[in-house]
Amino acid sequence: MARKRPKGVLELGWAAWESERQGRIEHVPLAELYEESQVKRISMPCGGSHGWTLSALTTPRVKPAPVKIVVVTGAPSWAEYWAPVLAALPGDREMIVVDRPGYAGSGEAEYVGDIRIQAEALMPLLSVAPGQKLLLVGQSYGAAIASLMAARRPRNLAGLVLLSGYLGDPGPTARFLVRFGQFLLRHVPVPRDLRNAVLEVAGQPGQLIHMRQALERIITPIHLVHGDQDDFAPIETAERLVKEVRTLRPMRFRRVPGANHFLNDGPAEDLIAELEACLPVRAPLHVSLAETIDYAITRAHRGLRRRLTAARDALFPNQTVARQG
User: Fold this and answer.
1) Counting CB atoms within 10 angstroms of each CB, which of 93, 108, 268, 283 has the fewest?
2) How many Å apart are CA 278 and CA 158, to the nearest integer?
3) 8-281 in CATH: which number?
4) What angle, rounded to 10 degrees, do the helices at 142-151 and 115-122 form?
């Protein structure tokens, strides 16, 4: 009988210890649960000049599907926990879920704490076939990284989904785990994946300015999907982000009743339906034209405001200093 993947903090922690001790990159070997025709592990070079190799799970397809879904996972970054969703995906969709640098099969990088470097390294995931639409999903800690990737305006990007986005404000469970993890790091050897997760989450708050700036530049629709029972990343923090960040288009916020932080751990069909709702529906021509005009006006207004501010500061530097004081 095939083993089940571990669940819960204690099971996951033990699985990480056991896997590192045995030199495995998966807590439960993928071949024990799925045929390679359903879910397959692949590797590819990372972006930038870092020389790392990325490891990811994907859905094999005879020919490219109309939509490609790319998932940037959280911390720890274990693609194998998305395998049930990959296996349940319909044939007209394809998905790739990555082990981020420093985790599982992408372990050549020991620790990469800068989300900008992570985004650069993961850009090759966003390559698409001609005519293929791209949906980029950032889960938990991966939400900030995916935002930076989307701001680079990859080809055929149809939307950005921030799924249970972790935004520097831990809920009670995350707060306890990070503090406990920091205690363990000072006293005992900790498996690499768990160590990196603690370091990443603890070091994220100061980097969120990069995420906010990226969101302001993204021209495609942005969707926040968040469970209202999330005790890792409070839903109130996600709601506050929507109110505070001035994006080119209004962000769509989806509150999932009764869901916790790990939406990929629930029924696969439910999560697939949530992602499908984030794909654009072809709008009537007059609606698309109106959105295009609104976008152009917003961009022009922001550019004009920046130029006027720069001109004012150049002409009246003393007043600028007085205002800052």
Assistant:
1) 283
2) 9
3) 3.40.50.1820
4) 60
